[in-house]
Structure formats: structure tokens, C-alpha cells
Write a structure and sequence with these properties.
Blueprint: E1 17-21, H1 27-35, E2 40-43, H2 46-55, E3 61-64, H3 73-76, E4 82-86, H4 89-101, E5 106-111, H5 125-136, E6 143-149, H6 158-178, E7 188-190, H7 197-202, E8 207-210, H8 212-215
Parallel strand pairs: 1-2, 1-8, 2-3, 3-4, 4-5, 5-6, 6-7
The structure holds pyridoxal-5'-phosphate (PLP).
Pyridoxal-5'-phosphate binds near residues 44, 209, 211, 212 and 213.
Length: about 220
């Protein structure tokens, strides 16, 4: 995969950021990609992210991409540049609370449920609206909502996948309109993995999370 055209940092001005999903993969493989220029890596387990971060060069952005439990928030927030999977009011309140204690602003994406499978995590529209209302009141001062994240259904039906990505883009536009604060930093749509990232980019993704295409299957 040629990733040279992707952004390597969330502050970069390009259009699509490649998050290299390095979960379960050894440091040597991650370093190899690092030496080719990649600077954004994603992990889905708190402990694994922290360990790899301590063994890798400092100029890497580590993104927490998986489901995050409330009791792990305190451990992850000093280390993660962006938390992709914020999927409940309880979780975002906890992130804000712990972020205040360490005087940090924590970047998050709200995970929206777009698939038709029961197993996928994510907010529905009313839960999303409830969080936006609290955020708009200024009650989450140490959280910066940078955009939305979603996962499409695991299916070969690419029309269905495309429609799910379209629905996330629509939800993104709707949410941006709802925002009364920090509208300028609300710009990321994290969608697309190894099997569907091209469709995701066509539908407006700004961040693709790719593991097996880069590192081989797990
Ligand atoms: C593992 C994982 C990915 C990457 O999946 P691939 O199919 O290997 O590209 C992306 N997003 C999340 C949330 C993941 O857990």
C-alpha cells in the first residue's frame, strides 16, 4: 500500500490521515513503518498502547481506536493524541474529569452507530445530541471533540457499506451545525479500514484506520 499521499499528523493540512493500526504487531514491524515516514499509529488496548509508546520514538501520535472502558480512562489520557471511540455520556464525562486533574485537553471523536449489527459500539442520534448539548454548555471544558468515528457492517455488500459511510457523513454535517463551540476544530470523520477504505475516502473520510493491509493479517 502506498501511504505517501496520506497526512502523517492530525495537525497536518492534507486531506486524509492514515492511522496505521499496529495492534498485536511487534515493535520491529512498527519501527519499519516509522522509518518509512509513518507517524500515526493506532492501538485498541490501553496497556499495549502505553508499552509500545514507551519503546518507540517520541514523535509518534498514538491513537486509541478501540472500545474504551471507563476504568481505563485515567491510564490512557496522558498517552493518547486522539481517542476515536467515545461512545457514551459516562465515558466522555470521565475523560473530562480525569483530563482536568492532569490539566490536559483531550482530543476525542464520538463513535456513531452506523452498522446493522448488534455487536458494534456507538451512539445513536439522541445520545449524540445529548452529548452535544452538554458540550455546547461548556460543561466538558477539557475535552475537544474533533469529529466522528464509525465502523461499517462486516459484509461483502459494498452498497450497504457505502450507505453506512454516507450516513456517518450526514451525521457529521448535522453535528457540525449543532455545535456552538469549537466548530473550527470539528473536522475529522474517522471511517474506513483495510477492506473498505477506498469507499470511505470517496464518501468523505478524513482518517482511515488500516491494519492488515500494512502489517499483514492478524
Ligand atoms: C483493528 C481495527 C482496525 C483495522 O482493521 P484492519 O481490517 O486490519 O485494517 C480499524 N479500526 C478499529 C477500531 C480496529 O479495532
Amino acid at each position: 500500500m502506498d501511504f505517501k499521499n496520506f497526512k502523517t499528523s492530525i495537525e497536518d493540512n492534507g486531506t486524509t490521515t492514515l492511522v496505521a493500526v499496529s495492534k498485536t504487531k511487534p515493535i520491529e514491524m512498527i519501527l519499519d513503518l516509522y522509518h518509512q515516514g509513518q507517524r500515526v499509529f493506532g492501538e485498541n488496548k490501553v496497556q499495549e498502547l502505553i508499552e509500545k509508546k514507551s519503546e518507540m520514538p517520541d514523535d509518534i501520535e498514538w491513537h486509541m481506536i478501540g472500545h474504551l472502558q471507563t476504568n481505563k480512562v485515567k491510564s490512557i489520557i496522558p498517552h493518547a493524541t486522539l481517542i476515536h471511540g467515545v461512545d457514551s455520556m459516562k465515558l466522555i464525562m470521565e475523560i473530562n474529569k480525569e483530563a482536568i486533574k492532569i490539566n490536559k485537553k483531550v482530543n476525542v471523536l464520538l463513535q456513531v452507530f452506523i452498522a446493522s449489527e448488534e455487536t458494534k459500539f456507538g451512539l445513536d442520534k439522541s445520545e449524540l445530541e445529548a452529548i452535544m448539548a452538554v458540550y455546547n454548555e461548556g460543561a466538558l471544558p477539557n475535552v475537544e471533540i474533533r469529529g466522528l468515528m464509525g465502523m461499517a457492517s462486516f459484509t461483502h455488500d459494498l452498497i450497504k457499506v457505502r450507505n453506512e459511510f454516507k450516513s456517518l457523513k450526514n451525521m457529521f454535517d448535522y453535528t457540525k451545525d449543532m455545535l456552538k463551540i469549537n466548530q473550527d476544530i470539528f473536522k475529522e470523520i474517522s471511517m474506513g479500514m483495510s477492506g473498505d477504505y477506498q469507499i470511505a475516502i470517496e464518501e468523505g473520510s478524513t482518517m482511515v484506520r488500516i491494519g492488515s493491509l500494512l502489517f499483514g493479517s492478524r
